[in-house]
Design brief:
The protein has 237 residues and is α+β, with helices and mostly antiparallel strands. Helix content is 19%, strand content 25%. The protein has a domain of 147 residues: Oxidoreductase, molybdopterin-binding domain (Sulfite Oxidase, Chain A, domain 2, Alpha-Beta Complex). A hairpin with a 5-residue loop joins strand 3 and strand 4. The chain binds ligand MTE and molybdenum atom.
C-alpha cells in the first residue's frame, strides 16, 4: 500500500478509495471496465497509478494511463524515427530484432518507491537508431510517442545517446508482454521508470525537450534515480 500514497505531489489518494479499488481484485485491473475507470481516475492524480501487483509478476505493478491499449505484434507493429534527421525510417519488429542488441540488468525503480531488483532488459540501443537516422546538427532532444495514443516522454539528445537507454524488446529474457509495453518499449535504465514509455510507436528528434505526460503534471523531466523528484535521500535505493 505504501507506494500508493508515497511520493505524491498532487492530491493524495485517499486510503478508502485505494482500498475500495483494490477490493475489486487484481485480475480486474486488466479486464474490468468498472475498475479501469476507477484506475484511470486514480492514475490521473498519481504516477504510481493505482494498480495491482499482478499474480506472478515478480514485483512489477501494471501501469497505464489509458484504460485499454490495442495489442500489437510482429505483423502489425512498427516504430517510426523522424523529425530532425537525414533519413527518417520505419522499422518492423523483425528488423529491430535483427539489429545489435544490448542486455542490461539493473533495479527497476518507480518514483513512488517500489522496486524490482536485478531485472534484465534487452534491446536495441537508442543511439544505434539515432545514428542510422543521421541526427541533424540543430537537434537537441528526442520525443517518444506511444500507441496507447496518450503517453509521451522525452530525453535530451545527450541522454538519448547513452548506452543504457534501449528500445527494449525483451524483459527477463522473454519478449516483452503486452502488459509491460510490448512488443517494444523504451528503457531508460538510470532514470525512474516513468521515463520508460511502454508501447513505443514513434521517436521524433526535436530542437527542444518537451515535457512528457507525467512531467506536465509536475514530475522531473530529468528523472535520475536518487537525485530527482525530491528523492535525493534515496540515492542508494
Ligand atoms: N505508455 C505508457 N508508458 C508508461 C506508463 C503508462 O501509463 N503508459 N507508466 C509509466 C510508469 S509510471 C511506470 S512505473 C512504468 C510501469 O511499467 P510496467 O507496467 O511494465 O510495470 O511504465 C511507465 N511507462
Ligand atoms: Mo511509475
Amino acid at each position: 500500500m505504501d507506494d500508493v500514497e508515497d511520493g505524491n505531489r498532487g492530491a493524495p489518494v485517499g486510503r478508502r478509495v485505494v482500498l475500495g479499488i483494490l477490493g475489486l481484485g487484481a485480475a480486474g485491473v486488466l479486464a474490468g471496465p468498472r475498475l479501469q475507470r476507477a484506475q484511470e481516475a486514480v492514475v490521473s492524480r498519481d504516477p504510481s497509478g493505482l494498480t495491482a501487483v499482478l499474480p506472478g509478476s515478480g514485483g512489477f505493478r501494471y501501469y497505464s494511463v489509458t484504460s485499454s491499449v490495442p495489442e500489437q505484434g510482429p505483423d502489425t507493429y512498427s516504430l517510426s524515427v523522424d523529425g530532425l534527421v537525414e533519413r527518417p525510417a520505419r522499422y518492423r519488429l523483425a528488423e529491430l530484432r535483427a539489429m545489435p542488441q544490448r542486455r542490461i540488468v539493473r533495479d527497476v525503480q518507480c518514483v513512488t518507491g517500489w522496486r524490482v531488483p536485478h531485472t534484465p532488459f534487452e534491446g536495441v540501443p537508442l543511439a544505434h537508431l539515432l545514428e542510422a537516422a543521421g541526427v541533424r546538427p540543430e537537434a537537441r532532444a528526442v520525443r517518444f510517442r506511444c500507441f496507447d495514443g496518450v503517453y509521451t516522454e522525452s530525453l535530451t539528445l545527450e541522454q538519448a545517446r547513452r548506452d543504457d537507454v534501449l528500445i527494449a524488446l525483451r524483459l527477463r529474457d522473454e519478449p516483452i508482454s503486452h502488459a509491460h509495453g510490448g512488443p517494444a518499449r523504451l528503457y531508460v535504465a538510470p532514470m525512474y521508470f516513468y521515463k520508460s514509455a511502454k508501447w513505443l510507436a514513434g521517436i521524433t528528434v526535436t530542437d527542444a525537450v518537451r515535457p512528457g505526460y507525467w512531467e506536465e503534471l509536475g514530475y522531473d523531466t530529468d528523472a535520475w534515480v536518487g537525485s530527482s523528484n525530491g528523492r535525493d535521500d534515496d540515492a542508494t535505493v
